[in-house]
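quick one: alpha-D-galactopyranose bound model?
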Amino acid sequence: MTTDAATDAATDAAAVFASAFGDAPDGVWAAPGRINLIGEHTDYNEGFVLPAALPHATRVAARRRSDGLVRLFSAQGDGAVAEFAVDGLAPGSVSGWAAYPAGVFWALAEAGHPVGGADLAFDSDVPSGAGLSSSAALECATALALDELYGLGLDAPGRALLAQRAENAYVGVPCGALDQMASSCCVAGHAYFLDTRTLAGRQVPLDLPAVGLSLLVIDTRVKHDLGDGAYAGLRAGCERAAGLLGVRALRDLGVAELAAAQERLPAELRPLVRHVVTEDQRVLDAIALLDAGDPRALGPVLTAGHASLRDDYRVSCPETDLAVAAANAAGALGARMMGGGFGGSVLALVDTDRLAEVERAVREAFAAAGYADPHAFPAVPSQGAHRVR
Ligand code: GLA
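yep, here:
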């Protein structure tokens, strides 16, 4: 986002605040959605991920209160203000979109941080239900605003883990740390190579325009919902497999050990394990390619990741499969679905001079199949959570 656009966005969030609560906020903060180059369903297996932040962000204009009350308003909501006391929070006590920021208040208080009341007004351009981490953006924006309003002195990974705790224990979605770590810790112009076991991260320069490449996000508009049990079931399957294999997490299994491990597993767990183990390797392969200055070669890695999610992990859907196939047929270097699955977005690596052609091909394929028109946009690796005003 340009400086002007960022200023406009901060002004918009402050205006939302003024219309909901009167007066001016103490500050405006932003946390982005994310893409993930590779490393899907590896985070809760203590493996590797390679996200980058989107320019799309959730902005929160916020003001501290001294009476322990919280009031939440969203420009994308139904016009109602959610109101509760920090003291009375317990998992499930607030529902709907407001559960995500409420969960952050709860997680901070539960961890012993001296957080009190606040008025928060949200304004977001992160597409929701698109596999681009709108929930994490909402949580991480809240965590950063409260950190600064209450002088909690948290660092970016610390805020991310509290945001993940909010989602796991307050909202009830057993996600890993990918989305929140990406939203909090990413740096503009870089992908973020993260070991989700040790939380050691490395910012990897990703200047694709310099080599004539672009990342195209194709939001299929098929809404995914991680709360519906399928995601939890997959995670449970992975944990069961790790237990049967006698390892702490599937991260502990290398590609060389895969064949022998498969023989010790029931048939239904074998494809899950194969996906996770090969996907961790694909992240390492991608890092090696980026370190070697060969980003074009990421294409086949992405497409192999998609095949693994489709055939082994089985979290793809006809729309994401079609977007990948149509993008590749139109000359993309590679493509794959991102996020939890069952809908959401596809990421394609494309020569910049073929962007329009690839986008047109995907839209035509969707029209021919009778699917809703997808929403495509180039993703520019952007800044993680930060103060805007
Ligand atoms: C969702 C979850 C993440 C991660 C991905 C799959 O985005 O929130 O923690 O598991 O799915 O990689």
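The first strand starts at residue 27 and ends at 36.
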